Amino acid sequence: xxVTLSEAAARHISKFLAKRGKGIGIRLGVKTxxxxxxAYKLEYADVAEADDLVFDSQGLKVLVDPKSLPYxxxxxxxxxxxxxxxxxxxxxPNVKDACGCGESFNV
Length: 107
Fold this sequence. Notes:
By secondary structure, this protein is an alpha/beta fold. The chain is 17% helix and 45% strand. The protein contains two helices and nine strands; from the N terminus they run βαββββαββββ. The protein has helices at 7-20, 69-72, and strands spanning 4-5, 25-33, 37-45, 53-57, 60-64, 76-82, 85-91, 97-98, 105-106. A hairpin with a 3-residue loop joins β2 and β3.
């Protein structure tokens, strides 16, 4: 079981953590939301919680709560620029369907 970062995502996260002046990595999880059932939640992490699963990827820590892992196991978090838009992209092999707006998914 694992969750990984692409090189582009790791560069973006590293720059942001350096600008913040603190942080150990990124926390990734899911919540019930959206028209397809689940949505990703993503935040910068300053400390690991007692029940966090910690994955090392590209020199950074990816923290995942145990309840979210079955839905995002095998996911690669990427960072992409497309024209004027930029943002994180979740390459999740577990997704069976996603809503049209791209904000939610189901497995």
